[in-house]
Amino acid sequence: MTRYLTLAACQTGPVQRTTSRAEVVDRLIHHLEQAAARGVELAVFPEMALTTFFPRWDLKQEVDFAGFFESRLPGPQTQLLFDAARKLKVGFALGYSESVEEGGHARRFNTMVLVNRDGDLIGRYRKMHIPGSEIPEEGNTVHLERRYFEPGNLGFPVFTFHGVRVGLALCNDRRWPETYRMLCLNGAQVVLIGYNTPLVLDEAPALAHLRMFHNHLPMQAGAYQNTVWVAAAAKTGIEEGQALMGGSCIIAPSGEIVALAESEADELIVHRADLDLIAVCRRVNFDFARYRRPSEYALIAERAGPLDGSL
After folding, report:
1. CA 90, CA 87: separation in Å to the nearest integer?
2. Considering 10, 70, 127, 267, which one is annotated as catalytic?
3. Is residue 267 annotated as a catalytic residue, yes or no?
4. Model confidence over 234-275: pLDDT tens digits?
5. Which entry of 41, 47, 239, 264 is annotated as an active-site residue?
6. Which of the four, 53, 209, 212, 266, has the lowest number of CB atoms within 10 Å?
7. What CA–CA distance (Å, rounded) separates 111 from 168?
């Protein structure tokens, strides 16, 4: 008997700095209500879904940006979202900015949690590939994510969601093949991704026409080469003066985009994912146990980039 999991990518329009947490949570709950009406079992929200993308600013004082972080989840303002998941029987993955005390130190991570259909938090992932810089760089799009977040320290965990193995990733993670391979090797069947991505980069105007292509390309390749379902949700539209790309999508293990957002606003896309297609794609192209040569790949883990002078 074929196994299915009905997935949704919950694209959201811009969240401005003046938008309250309560307003954002209401929008996310509305997504879950729409998802439940369409039979969705698992939905994914964007990266930093609860706030505007504050790393675009050079904020000097902690008081300026403390309000962008959650010290616990669910908290007083987000509990309603978890309650809605329990009532509607729709699980979700949510990207947010996490502030936590670990080892006596305050630490900040770009984080995504996985919540089951009973409204229980069952998994947490911290973004591994932190892009941008610590200070503004002339000629580059201001993107100070490395100032406000440290790289994730939880590895690439995979969680069991009502019998399905689910991995999580955030934004820049989607561009790195190691993300999908690590999740695949850890047993993922479904990978959920949230992202906030500028539509144009000041440092690469010649590549502007390829931005959406480069958005989908690594996710399609990751799905195909690792025989996993991928559902990715974007924040899109004009947010605090910066245009964010949309392109939220659901991708089959064949690499085919089977659902694609069409707007630059709140939009729900849904697909009933055939989990047995994973085995079909694996049998046709990627019998990992038979064909992979792990002993020959050591350089991948030993060296970050090409040898000096190779460019």
Report:
1. 8
2. 127
3. no
4. 999 999 999 999 999 999 999 999 999 999 999 999 999 999
5. 47
6. 209
7. 10
